[in-house]
Design brief:
The protein has 16 helices and 19 strands. The chain is an alpha/beta fold. The chain has 2 domains: 283 residues, Alkaline Phosphatase, subunit A (3-Layer(aba) Sandwich), CATH 3.40.720; 111 residues, Domain 2, Phosphonoacetate Hydrolase (Gyrase A, domain 2), CATH 3.30.1360. Strands 4-19-10-3-9-7-8 form a 7-stranded mixed β-sheet, with helices on both faces. A 4-stranded antiparallel β-sheet has the order 13-14-16-15. Helix 2 packs across helix 10 and helix 8 runs parallel beside helix 10. The chain is globular, with a radius of gyration of 21 Å.
């Protein structure tokens, strides 16, 4: 593969979405480690499965941050690339009820974004920006306004960037199924190669959570994946890039002792108790039914005019397995959600419970393992890693309410070597 001609990296200041970013004259890689609850990283580190990450943490910065609610992929990836919460950028799920169209739709299109993309703004500073995502559903959102490279591992072999060699030549890997550990490995490998061969100098890499949906942290397959991912991270470190990494959400077991999913069919329950007319929206809904069967720990409910919102809320709070219930205004404020894109009532469930609509709505035959999923409060805390040490100001900020969408701020602005 021929190398592109190197050009000097340009730095500068960027003001966007109420923040100011110092864009360094250095390579930068930001990673979204899809589904990486602390338990996965911490156990793999303790078992010496991730030596490259361990060295990076020792030299840099590692703490916890709070993800955006609901704890789903689209919501948090967009929060990360805009630096703001969902009430500002407008993406409140993988799926929602579009009241203007009177239609339930996937929330994969950039047309639903209300704030600008940091990646597009950096590309506008004459930096070579690339987005690599495992999941095709994220590509349009992550590349909104971007004059640069953007592709998914899922569809990259058919719709690949004209300016690049084949994905196989780029990564040395054969095509990976989206339902595999290799899809995530290819994301990091592709990002590394783009940096190595000067196709890009600023990359955003978003993995997939197949492993976390399928295996608990102590399973050999999960530990093996962490070891393989660590080798890819080691290659990324060798590029000399400043690396920031966080996750979009954690992951928890959502099944009973016999392995059956632990489900509250909320729409069915409401219909039986109060009558017809309820619309329950499950924002986890996306094409990857083998991961979760459209079952997560967060739901929003549109209440018919014949029912009382207060009565519905009081009833929901009495149901075993439901932990939080809010009306529209409270949910918008407390959970930082756009009030025009959520229902009359928002419901969150317990650590081991998921919310569904009705049995016929969910095809559980697609699940390949006992259900592991996310979406609620118990998947909110995620890792937050920067490859270099933080200055005093940012270390102090790290003890406050750190958010996963602060990762660009900390990686670009908070380094000790740039302190006054």
């Amino acid at each position: 593969m021929s190398r592109k001609i190197k050009t000097p990296l340009l730095g500068g200041e960027l003001k966007l979405n109420f923040r100011k970013y110092h864009i360094p004259a250095a390579k930068v890689a930001i990673l979204c480690l899809d589904g990486f609850a602390h338990e996965y990283l911490d156990l793999a580190l303790a078992k010496e499965k991730m030596p490259h990450l361990k060295r990076m943490i020792a030299r840099g910065y590692y703490t916890s941050a709070r993800a955006a609610m609901p704890t789903y992929t689209n919501v948090n990836n967009v929060s990360i690339i805009t630096g703001v919460a969902p009430d500002a950028h407008g993406i409140c799920g993988n799926y929602f009820y579009d009241a203007k169209k009177n239609k339930e739709v996937m929330m994969n299109s950039a047309e639903y974004m209300r704030y600008s993309n940091i990646l597009a703004a950096v590309a506008g500073m004459n930096r070579k920006v690339a987005v690599v995502t495992a999941k095709e559903k994220l590509k349009d959102l992550l590349s909104a306004g971007l004059n640069g490279i953007a592709f998914s591992i899922e569809k990259g072999y058919r719709t690949y960037e004209w300016r690049l060699p084949s994905l196989y030549k780029l990564t040395g890997m054969k095509a990976a199924s989206i339902y595999s550990a290799e899809a995530s490995l290819q994301v990091v490998r592709a990002g590394t190669r783009l940096l190595e061969h000067d196709y890009a100098d600023f990359v955003y890499l978003s993995l997939t959570d197949y492993i976390q949906h399928t295996y608990p942290p102590d399973h050999p397959a999960a530990l093996d994946f962490c070891a393989k991912l660590d080798r890819e991270i080691g290659g990324l470190v060798k590029t000399g890039a400043i690396i920031g990494a966080t996750a979009d959400h954690g992951m928890n077991a959502k099944h009973l002792a016999d392995g059956k999913p632990n489900i509250l069919y909320l729409e069915q329950m409401l219909t039986r108790r109060f009558g017809k007319g309820f619309r329950v929206i499950l924002p986890i809904t996306d094409p990857y039914v083998k991961h979760h069967g459209a079952l997560g720990s967060f739901a929003t409910v549109y209440v018919p005019a014949t029912a009382s919102v207060r009565e519905i809320m009081a009833w929901a709070l009495e149901q075993e397995g439901i932990t939080e219930v809010y009306d529209r205004q409270t949910a918008a404020k407390k959970l930082e959600l756009p009030d025009d894109r959520i229902g009359d009532v928002t419901v969150l469930s317990a650590r081991n419970v998921v919310l569904g609509r009705s049995p016929r709505y969910h095809d559980l035959t697609q699940l390949e393992a006992p259900l592991r999923s996310h979406g609620g409060r118990y998947e909110e805390m995620v890792p937050f890693i920067v490859s270099k040490p933080m200055n005093k100001e940012y270390r102090q900020r790290g003890f406050m309410d750190l958010r996963n969408f602060d990762i660009f701020d900390f990686t670009l602005n908070g380094l000790w070597e740039w302190a006054d």
